Amino acid sequence: VLTSGEPFTASVHVMGGAPGSRETDLLAPDKTVAAVDALVLSGGSAYGLDACSGAMDGLRAAGRGFKVGTATIPLVPGAILFDLLNAGEKDWDENPYRALGRAAFEDASDAFPLGTVGAGTGALTGMMKGGLGSASLVLPDGSTVGALVACNPVGAVTTPGDRHFYAAPFELNGEFGGLGPDPASGLGVSLESRKMKAMSMRENTTIAIVATDATLTKAECQRVAVAAHDGIGRATVPAHLPQDGDLVFAISTDAKPRGDVGLIGHAASLCLARAIARAVYEATPAPGDLLPCWRTLNA
């Protein structure tokens, strides 16, 4: 759950062929709603959309939301990924994701772990475990751009050999191993997919939020979301497939003066590419894993 003390401007762009989402239509630039109260990224496939309801419960209890007379309606768009074949309890009678969404809202913080946590707990890439990743940049004008991603694509995030990341040219400060680009096959792609062997062709997706404190309109947020998808293509090969549900939210907190939309979009794409690599790099083993972790393969 991503939230703020005040409602924030948001939009979205979808490029995958199999998205799962809630309340995304209201984020179109021509729709009336100007701001939302939270965004949710969740596992659980369609069940995970109910995590938005849990976040709504938390917001309503805090008196936050869109006011209509005496009614308060928290606005919480969200997106999900498919992870229902991973280990963990699956024989529940009541959908647990509402409670998980409420807990995530209550635990929301500036500091959070990466890897095999939250929406990234059951995530898989084409060749190894995915996860939750994040990265940021400070632009010359002092504004910040950041990305949060739950990485679960059909494609691979590493080059053939499982060691080097496609996003290596954009790495900062050794944040995903500092190995640099693959000197042997950085432009290649393996046709093998451990994920497809483990679970056949199922829903997959990379869902992300890119954010800036520079002031943007709703339409400008949408342009940033469009540009940020380049980061998925830079870090994942192949990307935006019919079986992917690739979706990027873009938000502005409006805390700083207006920014350069083109530069912010470019920075968002770089941050998203780095965040995808970090999600895989930070993944950790868990009982019942369908695929190995990057750290296990490169121990």
Descriptive report:
- The protein is an alpha+beta fold and 299 residues long.
- It has a single domain (2-86, 98-297), classed as L-amino peptidase D-ALA esterase/amidase.
- It is built from six helices and ten strands, in the order βββαβββαββαβαβαα.
- It has helices at 51-61, 97-107, 194-199, 218-235, 261-281, 294-297; strands at residues 2-14, 21-22, 36-42, 66-68, 71-73, 78-80, 131-138, 144-152, 205-215, 247-258.
- The strands form two sheets. It has an eight-stranded mixed sheet with strand order 2-6-3-1-10-9-8-7.
- Strand 9 (205-215), helix 4 (218-235) and strand 10 (247-258) form a beta-alpha-beta unit.
- Helix 1 packs across helix 2 (97-107) and helix 4 (218-235) crosses helix 5.
- The longest helix has 21 residues, at 261-281.
- The protein is globular, with a radius of gyration of 18 Å.
- The mean pLDDT is 94.
Highest-level CATH class? Alpha Beta
Could you state the oligomeric state of the chains shown? single chain
* Global outline: globular
Instruction: Give the name of the CATH superfamily.
Output: L-amino peptidase D-ALA esterase/amidase
Low-confidence stretches: none
What structural class should be given to the helix and strand makeup?
Answer: alpha+beta
Percent of residues in helices comes to 10-25%
Across the major sheet, the strand order is 2-6-3-1-10-9-8-7
Mean model confidence by pLDDT: 94
Order of helices and strands: EEEHEEEHEEHEHEHH
